[in-house]
């Protein structure tokens, strides 16, 4: 037996057995294998189609996410702007109220000061009048100690009263 060149009988039986195996595979094995390959190809095609669909959905979701994020940022900016405006308005209102209260307090204080000033002036005038009367009384007592000067003074007062009555 030569290993490099086989005998004709061996070659014949190898071809016959190969033909039988090929026939059995062609009749029973290949349809199953091709069916499995076709199913696998269909499954891969469906998976690729699903992947494309998912990819499109992901792109759509990404766009929607970006749109929602932008909308959220705009709303956040709007809310911050509104809060800032509200803060400024509250501060302005508080300042205006504080000014008006301060003006009212100042006006009230001025009125009180003016009233106290008038009261003090009245008191001073009263004191001056009392002092003037006391001084006049003392001066008159001193000057009118004798009866002759008292009579002269009374006559001058009567003459002045007559002139004042006649003049009016």
List the helices and strands and how they pair.
Elements: H1 8-143, H2 147-167
Structure description:
With 168 residues, this protein is an all-alpha fold. The protein contains two helices and no strands. It is rod-shaped.
Summarize the structure.
The protein has helices at about 10-145, 145-165. It is mostly helical and about 170 residues long.
Protein traits:
168 residues, mainly alpha, 93% helix, rod-shaped, single chain
| Strand tally | 0
Strand content: under 5%
Helical coverage, percent range: over 70%
- Model regions low in confidence, pLDDT < 50 over at least 5 residues: none
Euclidean distance between termini CA atoms: 183 Å
Count of discrete alpha- or pi-helical segments spanning 4 or more residues: 2
- Could you describe the largest sheet, including whether it forms a barrel? none
Can you write the helix and strand succession as a string?
Answer: HH
Structural class: mainly alpha
Tell me, briefly, the overall form. rod-shaped
Radius of gyration of CA atoms, rounded to a whole number: 65 Å
Quaternary organization? single chain
What is the mean predicted local confidence, pLDDT?
89
